[in-house]
Amino acid sequence: MVVFLGCAVCGGVAMGLIKLTAVSFSYIPDKPVISGLDFELCNAERIALSGANGAGKSTILKIMVGLLQPDGGVVEAFGRVRTKERDFYEVRSRAGLLFQDADDQLFSPTVIEDVRFGPLNQGLSQTNADIKAHQALQIVGLSGFEDRVAHKLSGGEKRLVALATVLAMEPEVLLLDEPTAGLDNKTMARLVGILEDLPQAMVIISHDQNFLKKLVTRRVNLVPT
Amino acid sequence: MKGVDGRVRIIAAVLFAVVTTACSRLDILTAIMFSAVLLAWFARLPVVETIKKLLSMDGFILILIATLPFTTTGTHWFGFSGFTASVEGGQLAMEIFLTANACMLSFLALVAAMPHPAIASGLRGLGCSKNLIQILLLTIRYIETLRLEYQRLRTAMQARGFQPRNNLHTWRSYGYLAGMLIVRSLDRADRVLAAMKCRGFRGSFPTVAEDAKLTKADYVFLWWFFLAVLFVVVWQWG
Ligand SMILES: Nc1ncnc2c1ncn2[C@@H]1O[C@H](COP(=O)(O)OP(=O)(O)OP(=O)(O)O)[C@@H](O)[C@H]1O
Ligand SMILES: [Mg+2]
Q1: β-pairing verdict for A34-41 and A18-25
Q2: Closest ligand relative to A206 C-alpha
Q3: CB distance A118–B116 less than 8 Å?
Q4: Which one-letter DSSP state was computed for residue B238?
Q5: pLDDT less than 70: residues of chain A
Q6: Which of A23, A101, A182, B160 has the fewest CB atoms within 10 Å, i.e. the most exposed one?
Q7: Which domains does chain A have, with CATH numbers?
Q8: What is the CA radius of gyration of chain A?
Q9: pTM score, two decimals?
């Protein structure tokens, strides 16, 4: 898959939060999922990343936070080139990734433990981490869910808790992989409200055009070569 | 009981088990069993669930207890159709039964009733290896997920009319089920690790509870516990 596009907002000047240059990646040797990908996310942008199933959208987000190492090309984040695992520690704290499958993201017994896991890793004290966690749960409208067992929530609730775990770390960038999957209309509308109010730059993967229309400032389409 | 420190409770549980397994007199074991019930009472264990747990363990030792009287030689106790039970065997069976249940009950009351993070910080406070604690915590969390995954796969099979029979198809399907469970678990482990990395995980869990000093309640509990242990030791060996 190839594409792409300089930044309409900053015209490619060095304001990019996340920038991929000529990135290529393959899970299986000689079967590239993406090749020669250029991408840039600038301040206050909300980019819709679209493409067919299997086009490599989720893969791109994972490359951005260093969960997958590209075979070629350069990954820049927050003004620095990132190559090694160590380089990405900081990136992961500043760019929050919402996974496509919430079940992969929630691993603690209770909701509150899961949400404060990130802040604790950022070095916050127990009390401050708790405060952050409560705030995040409040933002997604799940106050009172603190002591619920994470894996016994409904699909939509899991999505929102997963979003809270990301928000609790107060990232500067949100990378959202199908945040609307499994949400009903009402919850979806609420999610739009939540995201509209957030100041962060975002990359949003979604197949829901209605949802995207309300949020995004720019669209990027992955096209097969 | 709720306010007692994790470290204290773990030490108490270990001590309880050591003393109980070393005891052999039935009267003392009965007393110990009573104190285990008392501990369970203090810990406010749910009665029905606890009994269910004990029974599920007793299921394992049932055969042993049922056969011991007949396989141990000694004074005649009772007999039927050629089998004779010995008094010694009966006592041995009773001893095993009491020991197992008392240990289990006290463990449920002292350790298992704690929230998982408290167990973890208790173990950490006692100098247990960080990696082992992590394995324990993740095991607790993921046993349930594994069970759910298993159930999901089973329902998927049943939904398409699968009925276990004694034929190749059945055994092959079970093979797929087991294999799929392993593959999925490995996959999930990868993805969960990725999710944890995204939230700043670098190989060790953040310490949740600050190392608290032992409180007065802890000392009171410890002293009572030691006294009880001492009492039992003197009774048995004194
Ligand atoms: N762990 C993996 N091992 C091998 N191949 C993989 C793996 N993960 C993804 N792929 C393949 O890489 C391609 C891109 O996958 P990716 O998940 O990025 O797609 P996507 O654009 O997010 O699709 P969707 O819209 O369905 O979520 C797919 O063809 C997929 O089969
Ligand atoms: Mg995807």
Answers
A1: antiparallel
A2: 1
A3: no
A4: -
A5: 1-15, 225
A6: B160
A7: 2-224 (3.40.50.300)
A8: 17
A9: 0.71
